[in-house]
Amino acid sequence: MSRSAATRPQQETERRIRANNREFNLQFNYANNYIKTSKYSVLTFLPLNLFEQFQRLANFYFLCLLVLQLIPAISSLTPVTTAIPLIGVLTLTAVKDAYDDFQRHSSDSQVNNRKSWTLRGTKLREEKWSQVQVGDVIRMENDQFVAADVLLLSTSEPNGLCYIETAELDGETNLKCRQCLQETSEMMDNHELIGQFDGEIICEVPNNLLNKFDGILTWKGKKYILDNDKVILRGCVLRNTQWCYGIVIFAGKDTKLMQNSGKSKFKRTSIDRLLNLLIIGIVLFLLSLCLFCMIGCGIWESLVGRYFQVYLPWDSLVPSEPMAGATVIALLVFFSYAIVLNTVVPISLYVSVEVIRFVQSFLINWDEEMYHAPTNTHARARTTTLNEELGQIQYIFSDKTGTLTQNIMTFNKCSVAGQCYGDVIDEVTGEVVDLSEVRTDKASHTPTMKWKNGQEFVRPVYTPLSGANARLLEQADRISSTTPEPGINGAAKVPLKHSTVPSLDFSFNKDYEPEFKFYDASLLDAVRRDNEDVHSFFRLLALCHTVMAEDKGGNLEYQAQSPDEAALVSAARNFGFVFRERSPNSITIDVMGKREIYELLCILDFNNVRKRMSVILRKDGQLKLYCKGADNVIYERVKKGSEEIMSKTQEHLNKFAGEGLRTLCLSTKDLDESFFNDWKQRHQEAAMSHENKDDKLDAIYEEIEKDMTLLGATAIEDKLQDGVPQTIANLGLAGIKLWVLTGDKQETAINIGYSCQLLTDDLTDVFIVDAATYDGVETQLTRYLETIKAASNQQKRPTLSIVTFRWDKESSDTEYNPTREEADEHEADTPSGFAVVINGHSLVHALHPQMEQLFLDVSCQCKSVICCRVTPLQKAMVVELVKKSKEAVTLAIGDGANDVSMIKTAHIGVGISGQEGLQAVLASDYSIGQFRFLERLLMVHGRWSYYRMSKFLRYFFYKNFAFTLCHIWFAFFCGFSAQTVFDPMYISVYNLFYTSLPVLAVGIFDQDVNDKNSLMYPKLYTPGHQNLLFNKKEFCWSALHGFFASCVLFLVPYGTYKDGVSPKGYVLSDHMLLGSVVATILVIVVTVQIALDTSYWTIINHFMVWGSLVWYFILDYFYNFVIGGSYVGSLTMAMSEATFWFTAVISCIMLVIPVLSWRFFFIDVRPTLSDRVRLKQRLAQMRSRQSQDILRTPSTRRTRRSLRSGYAFAHQEGFGRLITSGKIMRKLPNGSDFKFAMPFASNNVSKQVSAVATTSPKENSSARNSHTPDTINL
To answer: Is this model's pTM higher than 0.85 or not?
Structure first.
């Protein structure tokens, strides 16, 4: 990030701190160490929460209505009808918000009450984190979190070194080294000296730059330059360091962790925002109706009403003059109709929405399919306001470490002298045993989940196929309970045999690690036979590294800059080549129990340009160079005549890379003493030069790192979490784009991209954006955009049909043959054949306001985007850019504190629990145990929630328009007097008791297809992207439907009962009887409509739908006959006559037949994918169960042709310089033990997603002729 990107208080230009002097530091009012992530306090909760709730336009609208209803002159309804529901909604939402904020307060309290040792005078005192102030000296101990951003003063390690883990900051779990000033390190843990330390620090102001710190320490008249290597940040964990002391520089909200955390934002769904817009439209519509009624009232009163004052006297405040009186009455009627017609959008809408969301959240919490047993973690909806947004996600922004991967490196395979080791071959069948199935055998067990209705949901078969949309529809009742092993490239593959082969027994080696697993016995046999090549291979792994060894309680433990390096040293250790210890000038290893000591002459450390590291060693007078690095780098430096071994190793490298393994080549070279001495002299000269030192050193390295002998290659597996490739493939099929935002280095990110099928060999190109300047980034992006445009102009590939139905002719009488045009609607969109990988330093420029559109143009036309080496704030900036520029619904998922900022920025934040602490979970809206559960969260619960909420809203507006507009038709017959056609009590409880339960049942339980089919057909998810299920058009259709229904509901009974007389001679044409009839038929019609709208019937649905209809008659009789309502006897009189029943039947037929005709026509002529899947689902339930071959799914481990080296050296320079300087050692070797000279050390230190092949027309024809099941392309 550039310095300008930092967040700084305007009033502070520099920070001045005096150690152990609180009085001096307090004058600057620096932030204390108290952390606050909550939004409310006890005092601010009520006003702030009400302010947030009244931002919802409907709440404000109902508040205005309540005020109007308090005015007797214009109110025709009691204020209670609005006040009680409004208060209920506000209270329900407030309780939920209070609970959410209480959780945040609990988290804050837990952090603030952590204990820290603070130096007061010369004594240590244990204090809470929240009491720590800037300028205090604190003591930190091993394996503890750092309380604030501190400047190191002294440590327990030699030369003032300490080791930290920064997983909470950048997601990396490898150790990093920090070193204090030599002058302050001498204080050690002497409290007298540290207490007297009075140094003054002048440094930068608080900012969000994690990798940069500038400051000056003035002490004892001398000035010392401070940089990032001397600072430990809050969120780090102290490792392998007994203790250290530091002075607090930034505390609380000023720490770099909190500066990167972002703010808690009030999140609303797109449906909420649409509802706000619709409310404005409805209010304008309501005002226009009120204006119409006002004009009608004015005309009627001036022409007719003034002559009826004897029967309808005007109020005392109305002038007696006809025109003036009519005008005043019309004005009052305007507000009266505003009250009468407010039920177009009743407050119960928002009560119902909150109830539906609340219950949907519990359905997520109770889903056992998203339970992660190893960590005992259930999925959890931490908010109840965003469920339907889960069904509209367009972009997912994911962290890598701990989210996509387990961050566990394992030595998987290797190639030594052209011989491949690691594959296990079944002796009987000759098949390759899939070792991944050994490790994840328990994954084949399929847990089931039963809802209360007893229906069982089975774990789906994940089938990522080609064409981005293609999926074979299997019979619903024939899904295997286990996930079969797929084929590659859509071709039939010889099944990989499940292994019963145990891992090798390394117990002969006293230093072996029980958790280390390897299955190919031939490699261990080669070691035991003293195979020279294999011994050289493992000897290199044991010697060529910068790992530190430490004996803890008799156990040998390694600390490495990179998990890859640790995995390689660990592999050598288990095979009998144990790295024992190192000093600045020696390395000690045990080879098959025998001690070998090597004189360390030089470390040629790794950097991002060299992509390799070497060590030069001497043993028994023989000089040897060991080198390991990226395959392309090593191959360029292998001596001539090695073509045979290079060719064989290349085959193995391709095989390893195709399996998604991280590859690395090993080489060695014998050195001549005289050549080395001459090279050593020139190396020292280059190291001492002040101009172009790095270039000179690289040239010197090139001299010695050439003409090497290739030993072989290693293959390390960076274990993905279970189901990640399948989940990513299925999310892609659903039209969701995945961007990976990681703090890890480029090579690692790219390699994981290939492993999880985010990058494939089907891509035309992978663009690397790594320029360091604005102009360089602009040039790269412009060139890539031109490449994309040129490729898009080329001839398009043939389109492929996306869905195939299969069922037996014998078991179905239905023959369904959609036309080619219909099939085309669901064909695959040909994806962009590109991916872009951009580095953090390039992203700084790409996010510049003048370049961000260019960056978006390139990125959004690419199939995959990977941003590496990004800071937490950059993650949030990328999310914000896509969120605003593309107006897309975004989801961010991560597991560490470095992901908090983007989780808060995205529309939906998902935290993965149990990986790197709870910061991400506490900031998230939803938490899950594994990345693979995201698929079910979105494509089942998210899609269902959006489907249910959309259907709920469509029906709700329909029934309320049908209800409310009856008053408009009645206005023509009551002189526009605001007289209601219904009983006031009916108006109050219509939405609360008579019609609420059926629509709640739909909003909670309804589903078009079951969860298995929701996962089997990802394309079902796409309607949410375009808001197809509820939008302005759908709202207008619902409103028109309600308008038509109200017209029929009022005019048909009116025509029936006008001047009506019963056979017994009773007059039927009275207001109360008409109102009762219209009200009853209205309840019957909307109940029949909700029955038509219900796709998934449960016992609860039946009870609520038919029960509410019975409940209406019970309540009506209770209110009128028991309580004594004004409409007593009206409904009884009406129902005693056949006229009522004929009227009800005619009205229902007039309103239901058009709806049924419309739906049957479109389902038959233009069925959606949902309609087709539902048809197949019903057919599957109807036909008898028959055995059928299970279609196989693509392999999770797929080959790729490209060769990628992804060895994860540390991003920074390794430990080489520190090792050879001796600073990193606890003690220097005794001269009597080693007669070695101190060494010198340098200071310098790219395909395919498996696709199921589309059956050719010829094959289709032959298949039909051979009486195979019909195939229907949709």
So the answer is: no
